[in-house]
What we know:
One of its GO terms (biological process) is chemotaxis. The chain is mainly α. Helices cover 76% and strands 3% of the residues.
Amino acid sequence: xxxxxxxxxxxxxxxxxxxxxxxxxxxxxxxxxxxxxxxxxxxxxxxxxxxxxxxxxxxxxxxxxxxxxxxxxxxxxxxxxxxxxxxxxxxxxxxxxxxxxxxxxxxxxxxxxxxxxxxxxxxxxxxxxxxxxxxxxxxxxxxxxxxxxxxxxxxxxxxxxxxxxxxxxxxxxxxxxxxxxxxxxxxxxxxxxxxxxxxxxxxxxxxxxxxxxxxxxxxxxxxxxxxxxxxxxxxxxxxxxxxxxxxxxxxxxxxxxxxxxxxxxxxxxxxxxxxxxxxxxxxxxxxxxxxxxxxxxxxxxx
Length: 302
């Protein structure tokens, strides 16, 4: 694939495969993420009524809301990539959806970190954790996280996000380089559950966020195209293209977190898993009883 040449002699590195891959992948993420996170909110609402999982429930609720905000922005990105990277919506929508992408990324990291600390605290200080729910602390932590991530996203909301090139193709947040039992056994089980949850959280970090932050630095040097001095890299076109392709893949991986977060919840607390299994069992039982009643009704009619 040949890079696009700009009027000033610089090149806009593009990855053609994303115009096929991203609409399909984001479409799947949109459907699964919407259903999974709405279901999670339903469960968390029930847990609120039972006054269970005070602090961790607050973290889960806020993480789910952040995921839903990102999911709601996906249809715009699906349309963007379906039109071969041409943004046909208002500049404000570009800024808003880009900001939601940024907010979801760092809200997910911080809320997952808060959940991890909550589980660690529950294992190391089980008596204190059992005697209080610390909902006020959970609310304060969530407010701080939201204020921090939203304030960091302000530049995305203020600075124009769209950029129209010489071919009258409007890009959204890209193309700027063309310008510039016993207590001991019970404690062991707690440790195993905490370790399972820790592996799940670390797994989300490694799969969704680590690749992007590893590739972000070299990719930035590639797109800035600094000709000399600090920041200049002497990579050939194939290497530059490889970094750009890898960067596009990491953006896709970041979107997967809204599907993986509900899976992490299953490792976070036994109450959450227990209610999910009970709800699924009730749904199956209700369906079987309904089918049985329909069969009996048909037999009576005949």
